Amino acid sequence: IMSKGTVVLAYSGGLDTSCILVWLKEQGYDVITYLANIGQDEDFEAAQKKAESLGAKKVFIEDLRAEFVEDFIWPAVQANAVYEDRYLLGTAVARPCIARRQVEIARREGAHFVSHGATGKGNDQIRFELTCYALYPEVKIIAPWRIPEFYNRFRGRTDLMEYAQSRAPADLYLMTKNPEDSPSVPDVLEIEFKNGVPVKVTNVKDSKVTSSPLDIFSYLNDIGGKHGVGRIDIVENRFIGMKSRGIYETPGGTILLKAHLDIETFTMDKEVRRIKQGLGIKFSELVYNGFWDSPECDFVRHCITKSQENVEGKVQLSVFKGQVYILGRDSPTSLYNEELVSMDVQGDYDPCDASGFIRINAVRLREHHRLQGLSSTKQ
Amino acid sequence: IMSKGTVVLAYSGGLDTSCILVWLKEQGYDVITYLANIGQDEDFEAAQKKAESLGAKKVFIEDLRAEFVEDFIWPAVQANAVYEDRYLLGTAVARPCIARRQVEIARREGAHFVSHGATGKGNDQIRFELTCYALYPEVKIIAPWRIPEFYNRFRGRTDLMEYAQSRAPADLYLMTKNPEDSPSVPDVLEIEFKNGVPVKVTNVKDSKVTSSPLDIFSYLNDIGGKHGVGRIDIVENRFIGMKSRGIYETPGGTILLKAHLDIETFTMDKEVRRIKQGLGIKFSELVYNGFWDSPECDFVRHCITKSQENVEGKVQLSVFKGQVYILGRDSPTSLYNEELVSMDVQGDYDPCDASGFIRINAVRLREHHRLQGLSSTKQ
Amino acid sequence: IMSKGTVVLAYSGGLDTSCILVWLKEQGYDVITYLANIGQDEDFEAAQKKAESLGAKKVFIEDLRAEFVEDFIWPAVQANAVYEDRYLLGTAVARPCIARRQVEIARREGAHFVSHGATGKGNDQIRFELTCYALYPEVKIIAPWRIPEFYNRFRGRTDLMEYAQSRAPADLYLMTKNPEDSPSVPDVLEIEFKNGVPVKVTNVKDSKVTSSPLDIFSYLNDIGGKHGVGRIDIVENRFIGMKSRGIYETPGGTILLKAHLDIETFTMDKEVRRIKQGLGIKFSELVYNGFWDSPECDFVRHCITKSQENVEGKVQLSVFKGQVYILGRDSPTSLYNEELVSMDVQGDYDPCDASGFIRINAVRLREHHRLQGLSSTKQ
Amino acid sequence: IMSKGTVVLAYSGGLDTSCILVWLKEQGYDVITYLANIGQDEDFEAAQKKAESLGAKKVFIEDLRAEFVEDFIWPAVQANAVYEDRYLLGTAVARPCIARRQVEIARREGAHFVSHGATGKGNDQIRFELTCYALYPEVKIIAPWRIPEFYNRFRGRTDLMEYAQSRAPADLYLMTKNPEDSPSVPDVLEIEFKNGVPVKVTNVKDSKVTSSPLDIFSYLNDIGGKHGVGRIDIVENRFIGMKSRGIYETPGGTILLKAHLDIETFTMDKEVRRIKQGLGIKFSELVYNGFWDSPECDFVRHCITKSQENVEGKVQLSVFKGQVYILGRDSPTSLYNEELVSMDVQGDYDPCDASGFIRINAVRLREHHRLQGLSSTKQ
């Protein structure tokens, strides 16, 4: 039999993508499986053996952990990325990272097809595929969960997620402890930032220090997880226009968001911050919707990075029972001027100026009142 | 001696405004003191006696609690009002409420002057005065902390706030318990919303129900306070362009923000939500800066209120150790469609459509890639 | 033969939709043709006869001119709707108007299908269909130009538009004279607005007055057309992500845009205007992309309408050689205060206040400079 | 007599600033006059002599024309800078340019004071002073038109502008011909852009070529002026909250705005353009309000410059009777793909994808309709 060509399949080692692997072979494709290690809890060796035993022509296990943190999570930290005021975009940020390597493998191996196990109603299919099309425009994508012959045959399966959702959400969390069972003594951390990204974390109690991006992120996930930080149960709006319920946990990301917000406001000009806040919201929408690899996301990332040049300094915080409390901050580039703001020191600031400031701001309001008076008189 | 006229002084009963009262009389004014009860912990009777003993011509103690909640806090809840991603605007919302009544008294009493004890570097002076000018354009404002003869004489005082700030922030909190000392058993609440504002709160454990706006807000302050919810230590950007440190506690407001965000996303169309989010950020800036009584804030409030027409339903949440956890939500106007989003039910949704959706979204990205290829070829 | 059901076809009388009519019958459908009169130059009687002769079961010719102006063009005028800074959205606004009636007919006639002649790469297919789905969610849409059996058969046709585009753009304009050939004497108009829409137009020279919406719009099209106003040759970004070239003429719309911008700025508070400007840009994108009938467009229209409550008064303008020149404006609700702004009258305004205003605005800038000085010292 | 110190006065050669020069000397200051040449029609030699004869200690005439175009106008062109949809910011852009040099002179000459002749109700005072404070934070500013002793004495003067405004606006224009009197034959230009700024202008008829920034801008002012391009009569909102009437002419700026908009849309990704459009509006507000030298304006300029990297190519346009008509454009970096957009070539684009795209976009709209149906059923 002639092969229809080679497919690089984003493989998870689970039931779903194993079915897809077998089905793709049935359809006449040569299948290369690719499993990205972005820090998830997985038996990679077992997955490799499974893929081989199911007939994968080649098996790639790729350790993307460091580049995931540096190239994808760090920009999200700089952006204070939050979708719809609550979701910290964990999965949304992982997809382009995984797809980027998948495309690299496909090009290198001369594969004209890529495939994935994302379902036909979700966001992940879009995130995967937009990155694939953006970086490898001629690629053909095989999305079995959108192909009737596939999904009509496999739909009956007990889907892991569906199953999970029928259980109590509390059982779903993998990384975070239930805050009710978490330690009754806080951990106190000092996080040092440079250019808006963490460069060092010190545990004030045991003096433990971490300093590489991957170590920092892993450590914050551990500490956050231990104290039950970053659990949310939300309804969100998918890109395709459905509302769906999501249960997420982002322990390290939550600590970083709080710390970064703090050092950013401390060091960034007020009006720059306001503009940058709008760009951060835009960034979050783009990433959620799968447009990491787009000209507009490149542009926004560039602008946000520019805004972070002076975002440096240390934030002290305590992590306790699901919460992160900022204790203080310190920075060589701070725009906070204790003397200027003090009520006892007048310095260069003349309080009389405030009268003029207020009165000028009131010009418009008083005119508006005057006009309203006229309008009501007329009637 | 001829009186220079009558001043209505926003009086707190404290040292500062007592000094101002005496000083205004010295300057030749008749002084009416006005003390607004917006729910703060205050001995109003003692304050009244003190004002009288210091020579106030009249003393008004005004109970604004209900209108503060309904006319000022509820719109902030509808807006998800947060300044600079963190500050819930407690004080900022109180100022126009207090000033509005002050202006009413001044007009009624024929007073041409109003006065207050806000300092010359802060936001509160602006919030007070913009409302006064907006509602009573001809009023004259006496702001002693901006008048050299006054502040040069009184500057030496041990300012309460300054004093407080030199102590550990933990001692500053009045309404909230330290989460470390808070109960180790959560309270579970069900908050019912209608038109985006809470109309009923039920404590699931003891079945206690509150339903008037003032009762609801007080109760949520109690529950939130008991569990240490809503404490923040931030550096913020004042309207006048200084950064200042603020220690705030908004226990009830924090619970409401989380609950409202949840029911809003559950019931509001995705794209309406996005536009409304932008208006909410605008609203927060306006309120922080003192523009509650402005045409633009009226306009934004109108739009936000319109957006809340379908925001109704119940949110279940637990309050524990400084955190608020959403447990679930339920609404007759929800746009969440379990069947539509289910992975097992196809219904009217055709997964193949997603392929077209993604490919059309990729048209632009692929073109961009093509052009970049051309550019690099040229060089 | 059993009919497959009834289709309501948006019929133009031209070659394209005539082909579609015949093809739909071939496919086994009963076809009702529907031709909307939105003011285009068309022989409606001839079109009716043609449709009947080609086998249409029923033929509807609907005069939508008045509702097109009042329900669709007037909101666009209130919004100052312009897409990508240049395109005045003529066609984009017509589509939902046409589709709305089409859906009404389909429901009334018990038709489960609608069809149109829009091509598969354009915006109009989207505008048509989103309105159909929004107002008649169960409808089935037949878009022949996206169906291979159809377009492979008919693709070879000399497409009218394509043909047109190969000719000089100057020949494309139907409503507007070439400015080089237009009169060398201006027309001077006075347009009166109420609630942000024109209620009366007076030609100052010949005293001709028009006052119904349809008459006003037609008259402005005539005057604008006579003077060559509103021609543009642009490249625009379609919703589907392609750039395309467009040659448009909107003579009446251009006059109204200029006049409305003028009376709006004259009567609307500065900050309300700024917020409304953002909503207008949003509105334009939504309409361009086909989302006229969406919750977010309803919301934005509501907000914009609210903003227009005081937008009333008269604008004088001259129309000449492709341009519209504003000559003056007059309004009972104007916020323009000649005395306040005069350099010779001081009035209630104290110029000293401006010093304070400026100095407070400079606080932040001076601090920024101070910090930059420190930074450079460090290196 | 001891001098109070040295003032650098922004001198215009006119009556106003001559009065200020004399008055400053009366007050005991040494006065250095500084006259910036930014291309205005002025007898600089006469002004120099006048200043000397009035007792200026030193007289600086500075030719800022080239830096005005390159450092100030070009960024405004890149931004498509327009304030309140109509005003092209001519004066607003000139002020920081003039003030920047004034501060340099003050620092170099050891002057602690700067002064200007801008009035106390206008924008220019703010634009001047914010730049001065930003670049020279310790400077003292003397603004005579805000000092009662000065303005009470000089208020009676026949102010040039006031006088002018009482005459017909048509007489006010200095650079532009009345379109009614302008040539009846168009000029046709080709403007070549690189990085979003013009690098070459060719007059197609006489083959005249200009290529330095200053030459290009002067030439476009000439051509635009000759054809009466860029006249506006508007009411605008000043920063201080008053509405004022302005009569402006920006012939060269108007040509550049139209040409730049065209080449930008031709070469810039759609979504980048949308984000950049928002930044351009922000930029315009900042510049209008006098914040050219601010961290946020630096930031926005940086982002806008970044967006212009691919904005290159040629725009052909005709200038005629007050209008600019785009005739065509051409670019090596265009994202316009004639084949992709063609109705006759299918290429890689599958029209069926559009069906999926539309249906997915309709998911949300159909759900919304469903919910509305339920709501109305309930009642």
From TrEMBL, chains A, B, C, D:
GO terms for biological process: argininosuccinate metabolic process; L-arginine biosynthetic process; urea cycle. One of its GO terms (cellular component) is cytosol. Its EC number is 6.3.4.5. It comes from the Eukaryota. Gene3D superfamilies: Argininosuccinate synthetase, chain A, domain 2, HUPs, Single helix bin. It is found in: Cytoplasm, Cytosol. Keywords: Amino-acid biosynthesis, Arginine biosynthesis, ATP-binding, Cytoplasm, Ligase, Nucleotide-binding, Phosphoprotein, Urea cycle. Its main location: cytoplasm. PANTHER family: ARGININOSUCCINATE SYNTHASE. This is Argininosuccinate synthase. It comes from Dicentrarchus labrax. The gene is ass1.
